Amino acid sequence: MALFERRPEKYFQFYAQVHFLTCETCLSHHGEISEDPPYKPPLHPDCRCHLLEFPPSQLEYYQEQAERMKLRAQQELTRRKLWREAIASLNGTDPSQAEALFRQAAQVEFYLEEVEQLCAEKRELFDKNPELRTRLQKLFIRFYRMKFSLDKYRSMPPKLILAWETQGIERIKELLP
Description:
It is a single chain. Strands 2-1-3 form a three-stranded antiparallel sheet. The radius of gyration is 21 Å and the shape is elongated. Helices cover 57% and strands 7% of the residues. The chain is mostly helical. Helix 6 (130-147) runs antiparallel to helix 7.
């Protein structure tokens, strides 16, 4: 360190809630560390991001954490892209293409709310193609069950997970009868 180099008194790390509703701008800043953040939440209406202040003595720890956070945000952006591609491929003649893309997206996370959106947008297609509707129902139920085996759910009470799983499966059955 140079003789007159100023050492910051504190640092800030940008936290975005990694979720399907989180905007891409917020996700792009997830994990960023700075002395004087150029982006200060809230960045937009309904923004659920925040800044965490920490001392310089913990910089190395937060830099390591930032790498994991940036990876998680990138995974969510990739998951969204796969989900959109899967929806676009539903109109094709081979539903296995869409199923493969949905499967890849579900490896990261699976959101019941996105299934609700999909069913609202593609209601006519599903009404005309009961085989596709049945295939997707089975697939989405399997994904919803898989969801609760992810690490982030391991600390939750088993009864709560069972209740969520049961409720979600019933909802999928309602959406894709």
